[in-house]
Write a structure and sequence with these properties.
By secondary structure, the protein is α+β, with helices and mostly antiparallel strands. It has 2 helices and 6 strands. Strands 1, 2, 3, 4, 5 and 6 form a 6-stranded antiparallel β-sheet that branches. Strand 5 and strand 6 form a beta hairpin.
Length: about 120
């Protein structure tokens, strides 16, 4: 096999390219952790009708908040649940002091509610 100076030059640059790609991959992998940390700082935990909800600004949808019910109380003898949409609206109010805009309220497949908020002017 005949090797030209061009192919030998490429093989010497290969480790540098792999190192750069690895650094880029690690940087991208760590970025969501930073946004999750910011979200955790802004998240508030409230209790609505005996159920615990976490309310925080939504990173996926600017201008929206999300409310997620923590389903840790898997007790067989617990009281019947009120509709989760009503609980989510109450959780938004308790956590932020603002009411949820019902025209924008929606729920994704994970059971998390998203809504824009209507805050009173002071």
């Amino acid at each position: 096999m005949i090797t030209s100076p061009l192919s030998s030059n490429l093989s010497s640059k290969q480790p540098a390219k792999l190192t750069a790609a690895l650094c880029l991959l690690l940087t991208c992998a760590l970025m969501p952790m930073a946004t999750a940390a910011k979200e955790a700082e802004a998240a508030k935990q409230v209790t609505v009708l005996g159920r615990t909800w976490v309310v925080a600004p939504a990173a996926e949808a600017p201008g929206f908040y999300h409310a997620t019910r923590l389903n840790v109380e898997l007790l067989p003898e617990r009281p019947p649940a009120v509709l989760s949409a009503r609980q989510a609206v109450r959780a938004f109010r308790h956590a932020t002091g603002c009411s949820a805009n019902l025209d924008t309220l929606y729920r994704d497949i994970t059971g998390t509610y998203f809504a824009s908020l209507i805050c009173p002017r002071k």
